[in-house]
Amino acid sequence: MKMTKFFSVTVFITSFCVLYVYQQSEIFRLAYLGSKRQNTYNELLDKNTAISYNIKKSSSLVNIGNQVCEANDFQMPDKYRFVKVVTSKDGLKPASRNQGREGLLAAIFSLNREAQAKTINP
User: Could you read off the pLDDT of 21-70 as tens digits, one per residue?
Assistant: First the structure.
């Protein structure tokens, strides 16, 4: 075997081995980066779940009711009073009881009219 042929085969085999080792090291490096990113993703997902739970817990009606009950300055009114405002030439004035269209029985027994909500369908 000639020396040039030996050196060329040796260089070819050595370069092939170096490329193979480089490829394997890149596979391990990319797998490590992927694993690191997956761990970061899982941590962020856990934090998101915890924050969503805290938001749902804080905005629940039970929690809001507990916060309202704990406040000492909160007081429910004994009676609700509604004022009807009508427009006139002189400006806005509260309507008197006589101006409203109350029924005969309501006027006799002095029953207050109740407000009723109506839905608006577009």
Answer: 999 999 999 999 999 999 999 999 999 988 888 887 777 777 777 777 77
- 62-69 own/partner pairs: CB under 8 Å, 24+ apart: none
Instruction: State how far the Cα of 95 lies from the Cα of 22, in Å rounded to an integer.
Output: 90
Tell me the per-residue pLDDT of 64-111, one tens digit each, with 9 for 90 and over: 777 777 766 656 556 666 656 666 666 655 555 554 455 565 566 655
**Separation between Cα atoms, residue 74 and residue 5, nearest integer Å:** 97
Q: Which helix (H) or strand (E) holds 56?
A: helix 3-58
Q: Measure the CA–CA gap between 19 and 24, rounded to whole angstroms.
A: 9
How many Cα atoms are found within 13 Å in the side-chain-facing hemisphere of 14? 6
Q: What is the pTM of this model?
A: 0.41
CA distance 13 to 80: 95
